[in-house]
Here is the input.
Amino acid sequence: MTSQRARDRLIDRLASRLPSDSRKPISDRRVLDVMRMLPRHLFIEDALASRAYEDDALPIGRAQTISQPYIVARMTEALIEHAVPKKVLEVGTGSGYQAAVLAALVENVYTVERIDELLRNARRRFRKLGIDNIRSKHADGKLGWAEHAPYDAIIVTAADDALRPELFDQLAPDGVLVAPVGKPGVQKLLRYRLVDKEGGAMWVGESLGDVSFVPLLGGLV
Here is the structure.
């Protein structure tokens, strides 16, 4: 269940979803190829390793989850669709899987996590896999990581009712921000880009579909 064959089956499923599934298939070969090679089972507990290549979210402790592979692929695809960013901020390191996927596609990933235990585990995984273009910080992700701004792209891996202005302040004018927004049960995955409007440019969110994420919390643990 942790073999390359299991990964291949998962990727084939992401690329050709059934007609009964309203979500669009993942079509970006760059994203699919990275996820085909990245060992997702290393980002979860050994007891759940046999489920690593099912298309499901799985618990990682501290009331957090590793996102469903389809969602990781969809968010990554949305982030790089118009251009591959050089510098990406991730809010919510979690298991480290999303950051590892991004690290294979972009030059530099900056990731912040409020739960110290999860961050330490993710750092160990990065070292084990030899990933050296991820910088991480134990911090309140709602505030971003202003020290290294501006970012070409920002990805948020937990849901808030509304995004804080600090995140948009840290985004380059031609950048993109992908995040789940809304209360539990009514969350939408949104992709924000700067659009010229009467009276000036403003960040406008495009809906990429319904999602279900754990809440984006503030403070440090």
Observations:
- The CA atoms of residues 95 and 122 lie 5 Å apart.
- The two ends are 33 Å apart (CA to CA).
